[in-house]
């Protein structure tokens, strides 16, 4: 298989992040997977698929501790970095009256992707960046206010950065809908979300990965957000 370079994925060892990591491997990339504390899902899969192990590198890092250091570590592993996936996110309830939570949520969900993007741009002459936003952030919600604000900001950053970093770096976003229930959440409540979604069903990872592959390979596409949500953002 021809190698196409390496991809750095934040929060890349579980759930959607690791699904995109596996897709990247299938596409011929090496992957550098950032994680904060848990890499068991990725390690379990690699034990079952040892042929991929030489193409996977892990970096443990607290993202709030100078994210530029994470990029520098990844760049020292592979000078052939071509892609960055800003997937790591904080998803906890809180509204703007909780200023500490507001600052932390914006730091992880907006400031860290911005700093990694700038670091990527400073070293990489030609490549692509994909930000993982969220399809269901437009409706007002006091419970998830800070999270929704942060993801809307990340989406706007995607547009601005696509213009600022062109023509060298393409910047796009994927906005997933109801793909996986949050850990510890009620699975019946998650399934019930289908009633709110125009296509009347929750999402599938396959559709997300098709969107991912499209944005990686479509070399004339930048500044776009692909909603993979069954139309949930329309309601």
Question: Can you tag this structure with a few keywords?
Answer:
235 residues; alpha/beta; Rossmann fold; seven-stranded parallel sheet; 41% helix; globular
Q: How does this model look, in words?
A:
The protein is globular, with a radius of gyration of 17 Å. Helices cover 41% and strands 17% of the residues. It has seven helices and seven strands; from the N terminus they run E-H-E-H-E-H-E-H-E-H-E-H-H-E. It has one domain: Rossmann fold (3-Layer(aba) Sandwich).
Secondary structure topology:
Layout (H helix, E strand, L loop, with lengths): L5 E4 L5 H12 L3 E6 L4 H9 L7 E5 L6 H11 L3 E6 L12 H25 L3 E6 L12 H21 L3 E8 L10 H6 L12 H13 L7 E4 L7
Parallel strand pairs: 1-2, 1-4, 2-3, 4-5, 5-6, 6-7
Concise overview:
By secondary structure, the chain is α/β, with parallel strands linked by helices. Helix content is 41%, strand content 17%. Strand 2, helix 2 and strand 3 form a beta-alpha-beta unit.
Q: How many distinct helices?
A: 7
Please state the structural category. Answer: alpha/beta
Q: From the 3D structure, determine the CATH topology.
A: Rossmann fold
- Number of DSSP strand runs: 7
Let me know the largest β-sheet: 7 strands, parallel
- The pLDDT mean sits at 93
Helix content: 40-55%
Question: What is the 3D shape?
Answer: globular
Distance between the termini: 43 Å
CATH class: Alpha Beta
Q: What's the number of structural domains? A: 1
